[in-house]
């Protein structure tokens, strides 16, 4: 038992050290860091209790309040990635009120036990039942919410989406096992299974926490490989991990993707009758630029020509003619150039703050939802790969396509 606890605590500490060494500052990383720290404190304190007081009964009868933190942290992580709840983001702190109230009672009981030479107060029975049922309900509710939310995570976060689904499944497994133990204890003695409910409940909990820590470590390593980030403790394992885990393609390699014909600009035709005069095309081009720069519409990953036309309340055909004939670009070439400029700006901003950015995160923030198209357009627009630009000391980019500045 204590070796399972020690292994889980050690694994949580190792994965947490990767977050610390890599100096990641994203909100999602901070949430996972808090989870790993909670697991380490939870399992570390349990291990110390087993070592220092191997025959004591208190650690078998005293539930920890930390179990009420895990599920809300999972959900906060999923909500951060999906981006669907930014308007109520500050209210997420209320999800941790049950854990805070349980913590107050927990430390009060702990103080009583220490002051009375190990004697437990009568309130500990009510505390254990309340925390047990609250953890059960929390695991069921948040487990279902995680599985429902996972499809809304952008495909850009493929590994993170799998992690969230795994978290949801683990939460449901823990809750179903706990419910089974509770039901077994309610049965007549002659009908119930003879087993130590506290022992088996803790074994399953510790194994689940260990599994989640391993899954988080996998996702973090994938992120480091994708962005070609140099971390000393991963250098010897990088080549092995790259072939074993999902075979990720680093940003340093330019993916050869055929550009759809629909994405190519329509060549000007001498026989094609233009609907707009050059002056009107110029006016529409300036209007498009204004919408891009003031409203930042390019950050919408679902932006299409029809959607842009509806937003600007203008004709789709007029927009298409202006882009293809006046600016000499297709709609997606035009939009993706703005997105690349935004990624470059964010990279420069992180470099000035001496923070190593997650390129995947920046690309998603700028409006991309495909790694291959991001790679393709970054190379085409800037003349270098994302990781090469990140490592360079050059902060001045000579964009290959400058037509949007000429409108």
TrEMBL record:
Domain of life: Bacteria
Pfam families reported for this sequence: HTH_18 (PF12833)
Domain annotation HTH araC/xylS-type: ranges: 286-392
Recorded GO MF terms: DNA-binding transcription factor activity; sequence-specific DNA binding
InterPro entries found in the cross-reference section: Homeodomain-like_sf (IPR009057), HTH_AraC (IPR018060)
Coiled-coil ranges (or none): none
Keywords of the record: DNA-binding, Membrane, Transcription, Transcription regulation, Transmembrane, Transmembrane helix
Keyword Repeat found: no
UniProt KW Signal keyword: no
Annotated protein name in UniProt: HTH araC/xylS-type domain-containing protein
Source organism of this protein record: Chitinophaga flava
Organism classification: Bacteria, Pseudomonadati, Bacteroidota, Chitinophagia, Chitinophagales
């Amino acid at each position: 038992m204590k070796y399972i606890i020690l292994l889980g605590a050690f694994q949580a500490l190792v994965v947490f050290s990767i977050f610390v060494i890599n100096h990641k500052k994203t909100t999602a990383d901070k949430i996972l860091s808090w989870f790993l720290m909670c697991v380490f404190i939870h399992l570390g304190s349990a291990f110390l209790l087993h070592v220092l007081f191997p025959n004591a009964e208190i650690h078998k009868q005293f539930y920890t309040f930390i179990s009420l933190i895990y599920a809300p942290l999972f959900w906060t992580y999923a909500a951060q990635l999906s981006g669907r709840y930014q308007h109520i983001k500050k209210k997420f702190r209320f999800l941790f009120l049950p854990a805070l109230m349980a913590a107050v009672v927990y430390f009060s009981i702990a103080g009583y036990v220490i002051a009375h030479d190990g004697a437990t107060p009568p309130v500990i029975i009510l505390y254990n039942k309340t925390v047990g049922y609250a953890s059960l309900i929390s695991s069921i509710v948040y487990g279902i919410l995680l599985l429902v939310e996972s499809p809304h995570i952008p495909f850009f976060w493929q590994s993170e989406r799998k992690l969230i689904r795994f978290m949801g499944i683990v939460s449901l497994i823990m809750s179903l096992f706990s419910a089974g133990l509770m039901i077994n204890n309610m049965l007549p003695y002659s009908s119930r299974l003879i087993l130590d409910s506290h022992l088996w409940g803790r074994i399953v909990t510790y194994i689940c926490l260990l599994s989640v820590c391993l899954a988080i470590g996998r996702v973090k390593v994938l992120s480091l490989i994708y962005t070609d980030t140099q971390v000393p403790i991963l250098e010897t394992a990088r080549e092995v991990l790259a072939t074993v885990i999902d075979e990720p393609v680093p940003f340093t390699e330019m993916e050869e993707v055929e550009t759809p014909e629909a994405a190519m600009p329509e060549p000007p035709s001498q026989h094609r009758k233009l609907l707009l005069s050059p002056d009107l095309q110029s006016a529409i081009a300036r209007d498009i630029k204004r919408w891009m720069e003031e409203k930042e519409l390019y950050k919408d990953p679902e932006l299409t020509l029809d959607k842009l036309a509806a937003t600007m309340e203008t004709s789709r055909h007029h927009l298409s003619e202006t882009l293809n004939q006046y600016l000499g670009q297709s709609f997606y070439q035009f939009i993706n150039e703005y997105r690349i400029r935004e990624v470059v700006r964010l990279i420069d901003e992180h470099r000035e703050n001496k923070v190593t950015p997650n390129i995947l995160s920046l690309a998603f923030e700028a409006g991309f939802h495909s790694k291959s198209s991001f790679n393709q357009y970054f190379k085409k627009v800037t003349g270098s790969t994302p990781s090469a630009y990140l490592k360079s000391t050059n902060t001045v980019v000579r964009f290959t396509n400058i037509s949007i500045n000429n409108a």
